[in-house]
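quick one, 175 residues, struct below
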Amino acid sequence: MTVYGGEGPLRPSVLVLGIGNRLKGDDAVGPYIASLLSESQGNQVVAPGDFTIVALDCGTVPENYTGIVRRVRPYHLVLVDAADMGLEAGAVRIVPVDMIGSLGLSTHSMPLSMFISYVADIAGRTTLIGIQPEGMQLGADLSDDVAIAARCLAARLAEGRLSGIATLGDDPTRR
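---
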């Protein structure tokens, strides 16, 4: 994968890894967001000014994308995944690394906290964004609430706006 700008290859400002299983309902939210960014921006690149985004669908194995993360060396690595945070369906939260183990992130072969530790020296900053699923039944589609939240988050990411997303643990609505 090579990302090109006006004068040649660019180092993306943000690399978005959409994580999840497309066959399990709301667990597909990460790949769905990656596809929204890719489709709306064409060829997985957003370029308002000097700002660029590359979005990839990692399925359930983000660890298979560490080579790409190493090659791209983004300023900001954003992981997007369905996470059972005890909130209403479609709730979006930044998940601190120390809270990852307490969440329902079970479709991955490697714990996301281990993945984040592994790539910590590669990206300037790493952020995990969780979206509360309604259901993750095999063969189900995304629920309406999660699809709406995904479209809103994709728009924020495309504009480079992560500020204003609540952090899990700082949120009084968590049960």
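The chain has four helices and five strands.
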